[in-house]
Amino acid sequence: MESIKKSELGNWLAFYLCKGLGVAALIRLQKNIQLSQLTSKSYNQLLELGLTAKVSKNLITTDWPYINQIITHISDQNIDVLCYFDNQYPELLKQISSPPLLLFCKGQIDLLSTPQIAMVGSRSATPNGLTTASEFAYELVENGVTVTSGLALGVDGAAHKGALASNGRTIAVLGTGIDVIYPKRHGVLFEKIKQSGLLVSEFLPGTKPHASNFPRRNRIISGLSLGVVVVEAEIKSGSLITTKYALEQNREVFAVPGSIHSTVSQGCHFLIKQGAKLIENVDDILEEVSIFPKSCLYTNREQEKNKEDDPILEQLGFEVTPVDVIAQRVQLPIEQILPRLLDLELEDKIERVIDGYIKLRRC
Q: Is 103 helix (H, G, I), strand (E, B) or coil?
């Protein structure tokens, strides 16, 4: 695989930094113009191409000195960059509703084209859960599958370590910049994955950890994979956010059962009740992904219906609406609407502002 040429990287970074100019808008624009020509167009020419006044202004006021600093840093750090329009961009990731425009990578970039299974779970997993994650990851890699996870403490770390113990086929999707180690105690693991596996991030190099980054990261973990294995998870956890994305992306969801007395098993048991496949060994996973049927938990028809008739989007206008007001209007708890608000934000349909959210006019 080859990453973006240095001569083209500036334009892609300009698009990446241009607020309101997402992948969907670039796909539409590509039908009428070579994307490389966009940054040389005037404000009025951009308007004629169908961009909004706000996006057009953002693009013509691109901070090129800042972009040159980023390019220098990327070059110094030997970071590979893939864009959505590259032939090498992962096909499965292109299929999700809000694919990242750019992927910053370090390591064995060819792993992106290999079949992957994601493995997620609790940061405070039990010793049994850590052992299960490590052993499953080892066996998956032995069977030619790359293990993808998020480098978090607990199950994520155990999965990466199990994969590295085989032949290193593991991908860590980061919620930080590609050059930022988080959590700090995974410094050694970070370096091992960089050498034998692959580090991936959609965030600019140098980006520090922030709570809002990790749900965004989770959609990439599931989006790269044929299915998601949940080893141990609490009811309210990032792992269940990952499975939510997996279901929307028509990926398989697998759950490892545990003790009914353990809080870190409640999330897995909830998923099993909803139709996730109960697994006891790696063969249970391989049997399912080899056939790869549509998920029984979420159908394409249901997904399209939700997109067309979204009660949360209907409650938003071009004035600022606080989160608690949205929750009151749709009569749902705030924790249930936050993931959907993130989806809408990633789809460039709404924008998060200081006091809430506003609806965006489409480009």
A: strand
Mention every residue, 6+ apart, whose C-beta is less than 8 A from residue 102.
Answer: 12, 13, 16, 81, 82, 83, 84, 202
pTM of the entire structure?
Answer: 0.82
Note the CATH architecture for domain 310-359.
Orthogonal Bundle (1.10)
Question: What does the DSSP 8-state code read for residue 336?
Answer: H
Compute φ and ψ for 122, nearest 5 degrees: -70, 145
- Tell me whether domains 109-291 and 310-359 share a fold: no
Distance CA 290, CA 286 (A): 6
Could you tell me if residue 93 is left (phi over 0), alpha (psi between -120 and 50 degrees) or otherwise beta? alpha
Which tens digits make up the pLDDT trace of 232-285? 999 888 899 999 999 999 999 999 999 998 999 999 999 999 999 999 999 999
The closest of 26, 1, 135, 74 to 363, measured between CA atoms, is 26
Q: What is the DSSP letter of 32?
A: T
- 217 CB-near residues (< 8 Å, 6+ apart): 150, 173, 174, 175, 201, 202
- Residue in the block written with tokens 């980061």: 174
Domain ranges of the chain: 6-76, 109-291, 310-359
Q: What is the structure's pLDDT at 344?
A: 85
Residue type for 312, please?
I
Residues in the chain, pLDDT under 50 = 1, 291-308, 363
- CATH 3.40.50.450 is the classification of domain 109-291: yes
